[in-house]
Amino acid sequence: MEFLLVSLLNGISYGLLLFMLTSGLTIVFSLMGVLNFAHASFYMLGAYFAYQASTWLGFWPALVIAPLAVGAVGMAVERFGLRTVHRYGHVAELLFTFGLAYLIEEAVHLIWGRSSLDYRIPPDLDGTLFSVYGSAYPVFRGFMMLVAVAMLVSIWLTLTRTRIGLVIQAALTHPQAVEALGHNVPRVFMLVFGGGAALAGLAGVIGGAAFVTEPGMAATVGSIVFVIVVVGGMGSLAGAFVASLAIGIIQTFSVALDYSMLDLLGRLGIVPAPGTLAQDVAKLTIAQAAPVIPYLLMVLMLIFRPKGLMGTRAD
Q1: In a domain, 207, yes or no
Q2: Closest alpha carbon to 224 in 143, 149, 147, 298
Q3: Separation between Cα atoms, residue 80 and residue 54, nearest integer Å
Q4: Domain that includes residue 18, residue range
Q5: Angle, to 10 degrees, between the axis of helix 185-210 and the axis of helix 2-32?
Q6: Cα atoms in the 13 Å half-sphere on the side-chain side of 215
Q7: Is-contact 47 107, C-beta < 8 A?
Q8: Does some domain include residue 314?
Q9: Is 263 among the domain residues?
Q10: CB 129 within 8 A of CB 118
Q11: Per-residue CA distances from 299 to 244, 250, 303, 308 (Å)
């Protein structure tokens, strides 16, 4: 029971972190139709900006400054880069964001170096929130969950209950009508892209302190982000939330399970011949296969439900 509860809590907190990272990409795609390959790089920038700001001002100011700084970078990228290549179609946008990811990584190397940084959990959040069967649950993981839930509620309220959200949604489907009402549609898209980058930066502030801040962190989470978007459904924020929780829980339980197919076959009295491929495959444990499981889930989703769990777009 202890293993079940602790793993479930860890899986939920990790899944909520993934949602913080994925939500910005989902919003940008649903409102602008842009699949941003550099989204994980904004996550990395958030961690590095937070590290730099925390060394000067402390963690709490960095929690606000870093996402705003990443959002400003995102708006500049949309205004001076993405908007220019948009006229050439989706392929040009994909190539632009793909190259942008490499540029950001090289800029990080030049400024902060190639080694990991000493970006740690702040003392205010470094403690025990509660105990589960004697196992301490960290305060920072609870804080991570709180920030993710608050962000989800804020996004939902902004898009559905405010004038800004109505203008953003109308600009997607009826841009000419929105312009006729006096709104600057290109500026709206710039703010949307910057907001998506800021959400990734917020995830970087939290994730960089919880795990590790180093130049390879974007590549580590970059692929899993697109898995979540595909499984949840392209453009669906609710689908991204469900998929993030599911993949977070699945991966957390998988890395802790040291069982293999060989164990199950042995209990059934079936023993593969020694030295064969069947035995080698059966000897793989769930923990060893854990990194591959989300991608297998994505493949199955593409086969049986290409639009994802709650997909609203087929493109």
Answers
A1: yes
A2: 298
A3: 29
A4: 2-217
A5: 160
A6: 15
A7: no
A8: no
A9: no
A10: no
A11: 16, 16, 6, 11
Q: Is 131 exposed, middle or buried (0-12, 13-18, 19+ CB in 10 A)?
A: exposed
pLDDT at position 163 is: 81
pLDDT digits (tens, 9 = 90+) for 235-250: 788 888 999 999 999 8
Positive or negative: CA dihedral 158, 162, 166, 172: negative
β-bridge mates for residue 138, sequence order: 128
Closest CA to 221 of 40, 4, 95, 79: 40
AA identity, residue 257: L
CA distances from 62 to 52, 57, 234 (A): 8, 7, 31
Residue 90 forms part of a structural domain: yes
Q: What is the pLDDT of residue 69?
A: 96
SS3 285: strand
More confident residue, 43 or 263: 43
Average pLDDT (149-160) is 87
DSSP-assigned states of every residue in 166-197: HHHHHHHH-HHHHHHTT--HHHHHHHHHHHHH
264: number of Cβ within 10 Å: 11
Whether the CB-CB separation of 29 and 237 falls below 8 Å is answered with no
Longest dimension (CA), the chain: 74
Write the single-letter amino acid at 160.
T
Q: Is the model more confident about 219 or about 312?
A: 219
Q: Which amino acid is at 114?
A: R
Specify the number of domains making up the chain. Answer: 1
Tokens describing residue 96: 């632009």
41 token code pair? 């790089």
Task: State how far the Cα of 187 lies from the Cα of 78, in Å rounded to an integer.
Answer: 10
Q: Count of H helices and E strands in the chain?
A: 15, 2
CB-based burial label for 97 (10 Å; 0-12, 13-18, 19+): buried
